[in-house]
Structures are given as structure tokens and as C-alpha cells.
Amino acid sequence: xxxxxxxxxxxxxxxxxxxxxxxxxxxxxxxxxxxxxxxxxxxxxxxxxxxxxxxxxxxxxxxxxxxxxxxxxxxxxxxxxxxxxxxxxxxxxxxxxxxxxxxxxxxxxxxxxxxxxxxxxxxxxxxxxxxxxxxxxxxxxxxxxxxxxxxxxxxxxxxxxxxxxxxxxxxxxxxxxxxxxxxxxxxxxxxxxxxxxxxxxxxxxxxxxxxxxxxxxxxxxxxxxxxxxxxxxxxxxxxxxxxxxxxxxxxxxxxxxxxxxxxxxxxxxxxxxxxxxxxxxxxxxxxxxxxxxxxxxxxxxxxxxxxxxxxxxxxxxxxxxxxxxxxxxxxxxxxxxxxxxxxxxxxxxxxxxxxxxxxxxxxxxxxxxxxxxxxxxxxxxxxxxxxxxxxxxxxxxxxxxxxxxxxxxxxxxxxxxxxxxxxxxxxxxxxxxxxxxxxxxxxxxxxxxxxxxxxxxxxxxxxxxxxxxxxxxxxxxxxxxxxxxxxxxxxxxxxxxxxxxxxxxxxxxxxxxxxxxxxxxxxxxxxxxxxxxxxxxxxxxxxxxxxxxxxxxxxxxxxxxxxxxxxxxxxxxxxxxxxxxxxxxxxxxxxxxxxxxxxxxxxxxxxxxxxxxxxxxxxxxxxxxxxxxxxxxxxxxxxxxxxxxxxxxxxxxxxxxxxxxxxxxxxxxxxxxxxxxxxxxxxxxxxxxxxxxxxxxxxxxxxxxxxxxxxxxxxxxxxxxxxxxxxxxxxxxxxxxxxxxxxxxxxxxxxxxxxxxxxxxxxxxxxxxxxxxxxxxxxxxxxxxxxxxxxxxxxxxxxxxxxxxxxxxxxxxxxxxxxxxxxxxxxxxxxxxxxxxxxxxxxxxxxxxxxxxxxxxxxxxxxxxxxxxxxxxxxxxxxxxxxxxxxxxxxxxxxxxxxxxxxxxx
Length: 906
Ligand code: PEP
Ligand code: MG
Description:
- The protein is of the alpha/beta class.
- The chain has five domains: 5-116 and 213-255, 2-Layer Sandwich (Dna Ligase, domain 1); 268-291 and 307-367, ATP-grasp fold, B domain (D-amino Acid Aminotransferase, Chain A, domain 1); 370-400, no CATH class; 406-539, Phosphohistidine domain (Glucose Oxidase, domain 1); 557-650 and 694-904, TIM Barrel.
- The longest helix is centred in the C-terminal third of the chain and has 25 residues, at 613-637.
- The radius of gyration is 33 Å and the shape is elongated.
- It starts with a strand and ends with a helix.
- The model has no long low-confidence stretch (mean pLDDT 92).
- Substrate binds at residues 587, 646, 774, 795-798.
- Residues 546-898 form the PEP-utilising enzyme C-terminal domain.
- Catalyzes the reversible phosphorylation of pyruvate and phosphate.
């Protein structure tokens, strides 16, 4: 018999925190807390396997489930001293979703299950609080109708006509009619009538009665939680976060405790340390007389948990520390114990029912990049974690945030703040304001940089939030949906900027007396919660001593090398700052683009359009000093470190001049007619230039091109050696498919080498000769290729293009469809396709090293800075990865983490 149900409560549990895969994060941590003897309301968790069986069978529960639920429920009843569905002493439960990894607000929850006309009188008698009971009932109807009867049934009402919105409006109308300001002002009698109206509306709108049998409610809620795994929001979040579809969600059924039983009850969310900056201070928010949804929904500005959590927006509200000092002290102690036990920062949810504290959830908390770094370093200093754990505590992608721009403090000083809110997501951002998630997506697609402004965000907005540079909301706290999601992504975000008044119809916002319309530009400082008009200057946030100290520790555990792809002296300098150990790819064609390229480009064009070898040799001679100068500057900057210089690669026609004036200039220089220039250019056109006359093929047709470049490289090195320097050039031949190509170019190299040694009276130049592996045939013949190569470098841009047959310049048109339809899981031009391209890499590493055991092997395609690809390269014994300068820290950390994981046998 399969076990689908796992109980917890009363100091014991069937599972523990290590079982998130099976019990979801929520279920696993509730089990752990129960085992620790913390005050956790008893309950049980239906496993993710159960969800997957349910979904794959088209919505049928596994045969043995009912019996397992019955007995788990009986155990809960025993612990709580109440009975589900009992008219005298009814137990109410919540049904909560919980995947292996937290997906904030993306799936469903139903509270107060078990409340119905049969159990209401008993609960009123027991609590003596009629208002509370009817408030709980109206919440159940609203949630259940929305989640179970509408969403889980796949009903998609038009905007604003969903059952939840309709019921919300009825309640708002009642409040307006009777002049009630807040929900808590509605008295019992009105709530009772409201419940009747709600039920009538549910029948009218959805055509079915609200189920008033506790048993039906329970199974309806469980099914809806499971189905919410395949809800639209959850699917889109999974796509963005790369969460596999087959994980499924668990469903935790737990006895209800109530934070909405009056002034001595409350609910709250806290972090054991500050999740925005990592400070070691207990940090949180709470709401008196409320249920959990009220805090996360962002509809009321929550109170601060303690003094440390006070800020401009909430300083006037009483803290829990002040209001209920005893409960706060107990919570504070739990905070300390939980941190000690988990040895990490936790995100906790609690409820206080009539001054009694209950823990409803704990999980390792999401944090910004800066917070992750600070916490890891603090915990290391506090001796809470080891150095190795410290290295594992920061995700490579979080380093990206640390290197993200911030608003220039000098520019801020001279600018006026137009609005203030809570600093929910780090860094700075500016852009044009838009007011709907859809507009954010559309404007972003058309190349605009936008700031998404919302009253508060909800999970439906995720795609728009993703597309925006920054997010600004008028309501909500640090634990509201927008704040959680933005923090998770490291996106600049400000919430609860209450002075912003939004008018969605007019697509504008008003701050004080001023109106800002859609398209107006604002700047956000997400680290401080400040909004400015216009676009402020941004600066890099690199000079952080903590970051440097962390990277030093990282390098202690890294075994694979990290180099950079740098084509310009500027890139080279930046790469050294970020810790490059060499250059893995220097693309010589860079000197023909951008500033200062006019003269070399003219000479290159002259060379391309030459008709005879003589003409070509002359042009090459003129080009030579430019080539040598660039190479020499780079070798000098990287003195003592290897620099892989690639011979010319791109299709020649890319450089053919099209403008009349350039054509005329060339005609004059070559002493030919302009029509000849045009004709020669046309002759170079190809149908498939990516597979045309490029790379080594140019040197096969025109050996003098190879000769000139090799001479530039070796002569540059020889001159540096004469100056007492230690240049380490590596000559790399691109787009090869056969060892004979390598042998051909090597013969030229040998000749030039001998010549230069003689000219400079040197005994040797320490240089290497190798090839890119970027054509499948080269990968398949790696053993042969290694016969004439000291090193390989995987050009995974071309290797991916040639393996998939996807043109790397044209995938924009269809890649999104492949991803949306799940045909491929990730863009192979961003992360190595381990199944296909990966096999070629693995095969060539093995074959190449069989021929030459000391073969140096690297990767220089774009994927070289992607954490998963770095881990793959480590697993396949590559000597180094090479990536763009800004991704070096990410690659260093990914490589260290891969080594530590391998050591731990993971
Ligand atoms: C490659 O193909 O992966 C590569 C690094 O070369 P390029 O992108 O210049 O073709
Ligand atoms: Mg290439």
C-alpha cells in the first residue's frame, strides 16, 4: 500500500525538513517544527505523489486515500479535542498548497473548511463570539467559491466578473450603505445576512449550490489545491523559475487557529533576519484581529513586529513587542531556536489566538543578493556555518544583483524625492511608467524600459513584473506579494508608497498635486524606497569589501579555471577586476567595429576586395601593425596569463562596404572602377554565410591571411619578451572540421615561428596552438583533431547552432514556442543542452584526452557564464570556462559550488 498521508502534531511527526520533495516545503517544515516541540496546530500532509496520481488520472483520488485521510483526521481530532463536522464541538481545518520550492501566491489555499449551518451554532456557543463565526463563514464562502467552484473547474470569467470580485463588491456595497469603514466594523447580524446573499449569488453565478457538508468541503478543497498546480499563474511562474512540471504540490490539512477572534488575536509574518539587507535583526509585520491572507494580500498596511521593523510608513502603528510583550518574548525565543536548529535565516508565519501563539509555517527565507552575501558572511563569523556552507549560501544568480547598478548617490542628493515607500527589492531602475502587467509585457517587447505601477500586485501580474525594470506599488508591506516575488528575483521594487493615487482608467498617477501619465519616466531606489522624477544616473555597486572577502573564500574551493571573453583593452581591464585568470577568447575582428575602427576597417575591406594575391598581400601588410598593436596591448595587460587569440572568423561579406562614399574611397585606393568594387562585393555574397566562407576556410583559400595574423601574434609576443615580459599567447583556429585544416595552418605557423625566433634572436616563445570545437564533425573526430592541437575550446554558440540546425541569428521567431510548448526546457543558446550538445562535448573530451592526456580544454560560447553549464563543464573535467567579464564572479562561484557538491557526493 502506498502511503499518501503524513501526520504531525503533539510533539511528533511522520516526516521532517529533509522531505520537501514528498511533503512540499510547508509540510516538511511543519513536521520538523512539530518534532521540535513548537506549538504547531496538528494536521497531516497529502504528498506530492498523491497530487501527481490525482492529476494524471484526470482528477481521481487514489483508492487507499480516503481511508488514510479518515485515520489521520481522527488523530488530529484526538490531539485537538474537537471533531470535524461535530455540531457541538466542531474542528475546522485549512487546506494549503505547498510545492518543493516556495511559489509565493501562485497556488491555492482554502481556510475555515468544515464550517456550515450544522456546525455554526456549536462554534458560536463555544467561542461566545457570533461575529467571529460569521466572519469566518463569509471568508470560507468567498474563498471556496473562487478557488474550488470557479478556478478548479476551469471557469474563466471576464475581468472583474469572477465570483470573488462579485462577492467583494457586495461586501463593499454593504459597507458603503451602512457607513462601515473597515471589515471589522461589520456586526454579526450583517455578516449573517451577507453569508446568505453570498450563497444565493454563488448559485446564480455558478449554477451550483455552495456545499454545506464538511466532508464535501474537505475533498473539494483538496482537489482544488492539487489542480492549482496546473493553474495559469503557477505554470507561468514555473516557466520563469525553471521549476519542472512533474514536481506537483503537496496539500497540508491543518487544524485552524484563529487570528481574527478579536483584539487579543493576531496574525503575522516574520524573518529571523532582514531579508532585504541581511542585518541580524528580527524583522516582521503583524495585524491584530486578522487572518493570514490579510497580511500577504497587502490590502492593509501591517503593523511593525518590533522597534527594529519600524519605518516611516508604519511607525505610528503599535508593534507586537509593545502590545503583547509576553507573546513577543515567546516568539523571539522560537526565532533564536529555529535559527540555531536550521542554521539559516527563516521566514515564519504565526497566529495568535486569544494570546496563545501558534506556528503555522517556517521555511528558509528568500533574500536579496546583498542580504544573501551579508548573512553568509555574518553566520560564518558567528560560527553558525562553515566556510563551505558559506560558499553554498549565495546563489550564483544572486551575485548578479550585487553587480547590478544602483542609483548614483551624488545624483540623488541633487534630486527631489517625489514619493517614499518600503525598500522591497534592491538596486536602482528607471523607466517609463505603465499601469497594467499586460502593458509592461507589450512595452518591454517593443524595446522600452518600463516601471510597473500598481495598487498592489497579485500573482496574475508576474509576467508584467518580470518584464519591468522595477515595480512600484501604492499599498502592501514587505511581505506582500510584490515584495516577495521581486526579492526572489532580485528586482528593484518599492511597495506601500501610500501617497501615490492611481487612476487606472485615465492611466495616470497623482502624487501630491502633480499628475504622471503613462509613458512618463521615473527612477526607483529600491534599496531605500525612494521615487524620483525622470531618469537618474546609475552606478555600479562593485566596490564592496564583503563581496571581495566572499570571493576569496569561494576561490579556496574552486578547482576549475575561469577566463574571460574579452575583445577590447577595456574588457580586459574589467575582467581582471572580476578575477579573470586569462582570456579564453579574444576575437580579433573587434578592431573592425566601433570607435577607432575606421582605418583598420578600410584596410580589411581593401584586403577583402583584392583580386590578386599581390593586392591582398599589400593590404595585409598595411593591416599588420593594427593587428599587432591590439594583440600586444592585450598580451601586455594579461602578462603571465594565457590569452587565446582566435584567427579571423566572420564571413567576409559582413565587411563589404555598401555606402557609395566608402565604395568610392576603395575604388580609388585599389585603382579600379567603382563598378568593380560593387561587383567584387556581390561575388562574396553567400546563401548560408554561417556555413560559408568563414573561419579556417579563409586561410585555406588565402594562406597569406593566416600568415599575417600568426606573424602579428608571435611578433607581438617576441617584442614583449624582449622587454622582459611573460606573454602567453594561444593561437586558436576557428570553424574547423578536420585535422588536415589544422595541419595546414600549423605548417604556416611553424614557418613564421622559426622566422621570428631568428629575427628576434630568441630560443623560444611559449605559445600554444589549438582549435575551437564548434562543428559536430570536429567533435566526433576529436581524437584526430588532438593530434595537431595543444588545446580545444568549445564554441558552444556554433556547436549548438550546428547540432540543432537552429540558426543562432534567427531563433527569436520560434524559440518561445518551443519553450512554451515544453518541447525544449531551456534555450540551448543560454544554457548548454546537456542531452545533445553535451554528449558531443563529453565525447570529444574523452577522445581528445585519449590522444593527448594533457590536452587543455575550455569553453568560450555564451553558456560559459551560466551556472548550470559551468557545473556541467566541471563534471566533464574541463580545464576552464570563459565568459563575459561581468559574469566572471558568477562562473567562479558556480565552479566552487560544483566542486563542493562533487566532494559531498551530490
Ligand atoms: C562560438 O561559436 O561559440 C564562439 C565562441 O564563436 P562565435 O560566437 O564568435 O562564433
Ligand atoms: Mg563560433
